[in-house]
């Protein structure tokens, strides 16, 4: 007759085998990536080595590739990749505005969270304006204005983060993603030739 201790040992051995099998079949992200630390690996986007090279210069390579690759059709150069990166950030900010608006208007939202969500909505709208100005500056390759406007967008996101300190909110995810996307945009700006 098997003892409970033997059954436990068999169970954990089986689980260990499953975990090892899964890990060998799939690339398991290191703990540093799960914590949001950027990784610097050799990335290769099949059929688009230019996008690979550009995204490799960013802090959030996987986000760069996954958000821009579906939008690049035809010509791929630094300017077209940057344009798409800014447009993706604009779309993220628009969604953040909508979510913040919704949170601030839900009847059972606590008054302090309504106020914070309303302030975040204003910050996201400011970020949208800054992204738009960066996009306009891209058209004339005004690197200084692009850097200023994108840096301001990070500040806008940080303002919301500061207000949310100690609170749980879906807006924190938007803030984090906005900062990462904007960081990538700034890295790509540094590659734009005057």
Automatic annotation (TrEMBL):
Leader sequence segment: 1-23
Keyword Signal: yes
UniProt KW keywords: Signal
Any one GO molecular-function label of the UniProt entry: enzyme inhibitor activity
Gene3D superfamilies: Invertase/pectin methylesterase inhibitor family protein (1.20.140.40)
Keyword Signal: yes
Domain Pectinesterase inhibitor stretches: 46-188
Pfam families for this protein: PMEI
This protein's name: Pectinesterase inhibitor domain-containing protein
Organism from which the protein derives: Camellia sinensis var. sinensis
């Amino acid at each position: 007759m098997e003892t409970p201790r033997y059954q436990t040992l068999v169970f954990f051995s089986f689980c260990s085998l499953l975990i090892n099998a899964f890990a060998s079949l799939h690339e398991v992200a290191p703990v540093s990536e799960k914590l949001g630390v950027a990784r610097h690996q050799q990335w290769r986007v099949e059929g688009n080595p230019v996008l690979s090279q550009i995204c490799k210069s960013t802090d959030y390579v996987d986000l760069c590739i996954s958000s821009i690759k579906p939008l690049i059709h035809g010509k791929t150069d630094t300017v077209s990749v940057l344009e798409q990166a800014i447009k993706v950030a604009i779309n993220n900010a628009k969604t953040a505005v909508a979510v913040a608006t919704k949170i601030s208007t839900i009847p059972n939202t606590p008054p302090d969270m309504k106020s914070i969500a309303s302030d975040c909505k204003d910050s996201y709208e400011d970020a949208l304006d800054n992204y738009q100005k960066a996009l306009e500056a891209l058209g004339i390759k005004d690197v200084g204005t692009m850097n200023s406007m994108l840096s301001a967008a990070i500040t806008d996101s940080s303002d919301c983060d500061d207000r949310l300190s100690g609170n749980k909110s879906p807006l924190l995810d938007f803030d984090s993603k906005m900062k990462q996307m904007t960081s990538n945009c700034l890295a790509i700006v540094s590659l734009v030739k005057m």
